[in-house]
Write a structure and sequence with these properties.
With 298 residues, the chain is of the alpha+beta class. The chain has one domain: Anthranilate synthase. The chain is built from seven helices and 15 strands. Strands 1, 2, 3, 4, 5, 11, 14 and 15 form an eight-stranded antiparallel β-sheet that branches. Strands 6, 7, 8, 9, 10, 12 and 13 form a seven-stranded antiparallel β-sheet that branches. Strand 14 and strand 15 (268-277) form a beta hairpin. The chain is globular and about 50 Å long.
């Protein structure tokens, strides 16, 4: 909440490029891509991750939080015949993409909120599994830890939306999305939460967003206390990562959560990824999940 970037005429500028569902894309001139960009990750050792995990777990045991999204930043090497972030932006088919040359590229599968007329909806994404595992969808839908984590987020988002809307409903609960990655397909579990906006929103977008930020899926519950846990465990500022971006066309607002995020700093590249930690989490499995999420769009 300290580095907002607002562009009054987004299709009439060449600083930020983007794509959101059901709206015209704004992309830089197409490259002649003959070979896909490739990625090599250099993640922190599991011993470092374990220290962060145990910090979170201690707070969970104390009752300070009952769901914490723990993230890490991983140095990566990108091999590309062109500017790699430019190429990644073009080869991405994710619903939400934002590319700020020389700063970052984000190819997100997750919606934060959409507002159409006076209707608001959110689609939190919690739960990831390798699609190649036999019966992967059934396994993740029947996993107790994943189920508890997802239920917590759905309840959390219902509470968040109730701050700005009435008639809160969950028309779709724990449905499966397939995401194609450079390492193969993965399955993600999402839900849809909806409501009716309280009063006119067009003149109060900033106030509305402030009421429900940060996104529940990348923070945790309860939100304020969990953000303190995250600060202690991660020992870094996330910057734009896990924020939101979106497009407002005068009638509809559509925003995505800034996950699947690559940042460029001092001519080096970093990939941020994370996952939800509950009292039933296993450190080794959580470490593998954050590594699994380090991928390029296919």
């Amino acid at each position: 909440m300290d580095r907002g970037l607002f562009i009054a005429n987004p299709y009439q500028q060449e600083e930020i490029f983007f794509r959101v569902p059901n709206q015209p894309s704004h992309l830089p001139q197409t490259l002649s891509i003959t070979q896909p960009c490739t990625l090599a990750a250099h993640p922190e050792p599991i011993s470092d991750y374990t220290q962060r995990f145990e910090c979170v777990m201690n707070h969970l045991k104390r009752g300070d939080s009952f769901l914490t999204n723990l993230t890490i930043e991983t140095p990566i090497s990108l091999d590309s015949a062109h500017d790699p972030m430019h190429q990644i932006a073009l080869q991405s088919h994710s619903p939400y993409m934002i590319y700020w040359p020389d700063h970052f590229v984000c190819f997100s599968p997750e919606r934060f909120i959409q507002i159409e007329r006076d209707h608001i909806s959110s689609h939190p994404m919690k739960g990831t599994i390798d699609a190649a595992i036999p019966h992967a969808a059934q396994l993740i839908l029947n996993d107790q830890k994943e189920t508890e984590e997802h239920c917590t987020i759905v309840d959390f988002i219902r509470s968040d939306l109730s701050r700005v809307a009435t008639n809160i409903q969950v028309p779709r609960f724990r449905y499966i999305d397939k995401v194609s990655t450079s390492h193969g397909d993965i399955l993600q579990v999402s839900s849809e939460i909806t409501g009716d906006i309280l009063g006119p929103f067009k003149d109060n977008l900033g106030n509305l967003l402030e009421e429900i930020l940060p996104a529940g899926s990348i923070s945790g519950a309860p939100k304020r206390a969990t953000c303190s846990v995250i600060k202690e465990a991660e020992q870094r500022k996330r910057g734009y990562y896990s924020g939101i971006f979106g497009l407002y066309n005068g009638d509809t607002l559509d925003t995505g959560v800034m996950i699947r995020y690559i940042e460029r700093r001092n001519n080096a590249y970093f990939f941020s990824s994370g996952g939800g930690i509950t009292i039933n989490s296993d450190c080794q499995k959580e470490y593998q999940e954050v590594i699994q999420k380090i991928y390029l769009p296919k």
